């Protein structure tokens, strides 16, 4: 049987924003199942996850995807564990309280394709600025859309790998794009988002382009980049009650700082109250309100208050595991009665 490449992928210990790391393990007689992926280890002293005198960290496989860009290869998403197999402090996935997969998450992952030669987004001239934003959102044409070849290749790779990407679009700023992921289960949603991010990084690498995850890569009158978190659980999907939705939304207003702490670095630069955001120190919710902290989608209302909510505050550089974990904690803190 041919040898198989297993690309073990994990999140490092850098703060305030973790980065993707990966390395390849060659195995024989691989059965193609997650259970066939052995536990592995790495040098945590090189990723700010351990001291040099006790540097081993463990990699626990948690999700498996075929790798369409390499021969005889798979992508293995992993959690980082301590040597005693307890979750490492950098392991956000292990904090998610959703073992029954009751929570469904859809992440709208924005990012900016960055030209390393000009140190600006693709589509920005070497000096000065392009035309003001407005013409770039969901655009087409060489004067409006920049980096489409990367975006399209990335989409194809995700679909071939079995990553549940539900769509892509050009965003409001030149060189800014978005993809959306969805899964029935918070951990799985995080897995799919991180694998999609990994494939994007590797695709852009081939073109010599940087993926800039910063939430406000260009200062001034330009939109920042977010990772809007659309979420539901059985309560939200069956509530049939505006009162239930209002009660859950109000619970988020009591823990503003707890959410902001895990919603991404430098988010104060993006959450200003402008450019389709609420101010970082305020909380609001409203139907179809893209300037609110939490938007109640109009589809939820027209479906008889049965649907989902969108937290618009997470930044593009936030860890979807940690975002989901905090949202679940807040929703579960609420006691509501639902008539079935």
Automatic annotation (TrEMBL):
What organism is listed for this UniProt entry?
Agaribacillus aureus
Question: What quaternary arrangement does the UniProt entry report?
Answer: Homooctamer and homotetramer.
Primary enzyme class: ligase
Lineage here is:
Bacteria, Pseudomonadati, Bacteroidota, Cytophagia, Cytophagales
Query: What does this protein do, in the record's words?
Result: Catalyzes the ATP-dependent biosynthesis of glutamine from glutamate and ammonia.
Please give the PROSITE patterns that the UniProt record associates with this protein.
Answer: GLNA_1, GLNA_ATP, GS_BETA_GRASP, GS_CATALYTIC
Q: Which Pfam families match?
A: Gln-synt_C, Gln-synt_N
- EC number, as in UniProt: 6.3.1.2
Q: Does the keyword Transmembrane apply?
A: no
**Keyword terms of this UniProt record:** ATP-binding, Ligase, Nucleotide-binding
Please report which protein family the annotation says this sequence is part of. Answer: Belongs to the glutamine synthetase family.
Under which name does UniProt file this protein?
Glutamine synthetase
Give every GS catalytic domain span: 87-340
């Amino acid at each position: 049987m041919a040898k198989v490449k297993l690309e073990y992928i994990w999140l490092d210990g850098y703060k305030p924003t973790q980065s993707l790391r990966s390395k390849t393990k060659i195995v024989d007689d691989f059965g193609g199942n997650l259970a066939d992926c052995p536990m592995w280890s790495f040098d945590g002293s090189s990723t700010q996850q351990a001291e040099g005198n006790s540097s081993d960290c463990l990699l626990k496989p948690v999700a498996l995807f075929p790798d369409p860009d390499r021969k005889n290869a798979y992508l293995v998403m992993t959690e980082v564990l301590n040597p005693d197999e307890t979750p490492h402090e950098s392991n956000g996935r292990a904090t998610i309280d959703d073992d029954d997969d009751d929570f469904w998450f859809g992440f709208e992952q924005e990012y900016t394709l960055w030209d390393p030669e000009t140190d600006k987004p693709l589509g920005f001239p070497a000096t000065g600025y392009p035309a003001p934003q407005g013409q770039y959102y969901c655009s087409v044409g060489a004067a409006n859309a920049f980096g489409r070849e990367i975006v399209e290749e990335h989409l194809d790779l995700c679909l071939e790998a079995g990553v549940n990407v539900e769509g892509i679009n050009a965003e409001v700023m030149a060189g800014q794009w978005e993809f959306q992921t969805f899964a029935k289960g918070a951990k799985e949603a995080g897995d799919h988002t991180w694998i999609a991010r990994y494939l994007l990084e590797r695709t852009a690498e081939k073109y010599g382009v940087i993926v800039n995850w910063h939430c406000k890569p260009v200062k001034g009158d330009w939109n920042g980049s977010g990772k809007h978190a659309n979420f539901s659980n059985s309560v939200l999907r069956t509530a049939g009650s505006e009162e239930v939705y209002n009660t859950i939304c109000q619970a988020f207003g009591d823990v503003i700082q707890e959410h902001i702490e895990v919603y991404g670095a430098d988010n104060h630069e993006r959450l200003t109250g402008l450019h389709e955001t609420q101010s970082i120190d305020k909380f609001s919710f409203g139907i179809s309100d893209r300037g609110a902290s939490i938007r109640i989608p109009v589809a939820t209302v027209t479906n008889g208050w049965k649907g989902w909510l969108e937290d618009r505050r997470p930044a593009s550089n936030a860890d979807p595991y940690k975002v989901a974990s905090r949202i679940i904690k807040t929703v579960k803190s609420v006691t509501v009665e639902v008539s079935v």
